[in-house]
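Summary for the funding panel

The consortium committed to producing paired sequence-structure records for every protein in the target list. Below we show the first two records in order, beginning with the earlier of the two.
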Amino acid sequence: MTRNSVKQMVSVLKQFGPMTENEINQTAFGYDRNTSFGSNKKYADMLRRGLAKGIIDRVEVPSNAVNLTRINTKPTRAKFIYFATREIEVPCSAELDMEMANESENIL
């Protein structure tokens, strides 16, 4: 897997479950936006690409919620919790075509 990729974020979300944006960055890349002087743009863009592709989704956290995700158990300022969506497996169309062809032969 390539370093610093959307796939790495998805892998972390599948392994550890729902997380805030900062928790994803800490777990997947070792980047903490609260203590780092570096820009968050690269990681935020990766998260947006995952959302646009439909492989990551998010839900809004109510303002009075307590963060019960795996890294922190204290109240959070995060507005969203992110999670990996389920991948839908589509069976190979060639196999289905052959099954339909075999069924139609049996009808005659």
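The next record, for a separate protein in the list, is shown here:
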Amino acid sequence: MKTFTKKIVLIVSIFSVSAITLMLISLQIKSRVCVQVIGQKSIDSSDILILGDSRAECQIDPQILHNESNVNCLNIAETAMDLFSLSLRLKALDLKNKTLLISASAWQINDGSNEFGYFRIEAFNHLTLSQKLQIYLYSPSEIKRIFSENWQQLFNLNLTIGKSTVFVNHGYPAIDPKDFKTSNMFDNHPWYKNINTHGAKRELLIQALMNLNALNCNRIILYNAPAYEEFINEAKNNSVWDMENEYCNTIKQFINSEGHKHIEFYDLRNLEGFTKEDYYEPQHFSSKGAKKFSRKIAEIFHLRQP
């Protein structure tokens, strides 16, 4: 009986060590990135590409921006699209003479914001093994998910940019306004868990800015979008506002450094002229607010043409 037990323990130990070894090997492999462009004709015929995360995807009406700027506009932003992941995709496009209008929110500098949907596999793959373990040391369920995804795309990481559901000067997912509360938002929101702005994601942000700065295009406009007034007041009472400031300052310092003059950054967190009815939740405009915002940025970003 003892001999049998020892054999079982030995088999389990070997299996466990093999599984851990396989996972560590997988975590160190860099996938080959392949980018598929969707809606190539729409992208090619647009002068302004609206990109970034949901605060562009749901908040900029390309038709209004077209009317204000008198040039062709296309909204292909995606929910939770971080700058690093976007920069990999943009390398596949001919961006000559194009203006890139990019919403870039502060969650992407926080190592604690690592839940599914807020940290893409292509960004994860770029990290060193120690950085990966640092971010996910206390998140075994997330490291298991990412390991599974990474194993499936071990050699080829297939990314996409563009959408088949939007067209030049037309199409974005407008959202109706609804009642909301700002209380306790910071306790459960994945953007604000275990805030750490001086870890691996900060380095990813810098790399993303370097990638963007190397693109051959007309202008690159980054912005941190407005938020509801009560949300801002509450954020100032905890570390969330410090995270927001750290994020904005990191981008500004990069732009002001020697040799990095290709990117413009606008901190619009306190942009005036919006009421609660313009939001559907504290950090996202409703369709009503999106129309206002689309008109305002044409002036703020100097996009208006006679």
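Regarding this second record: The longest strand covers residues 32-37. The chain has one domain: 40-119+162-300.
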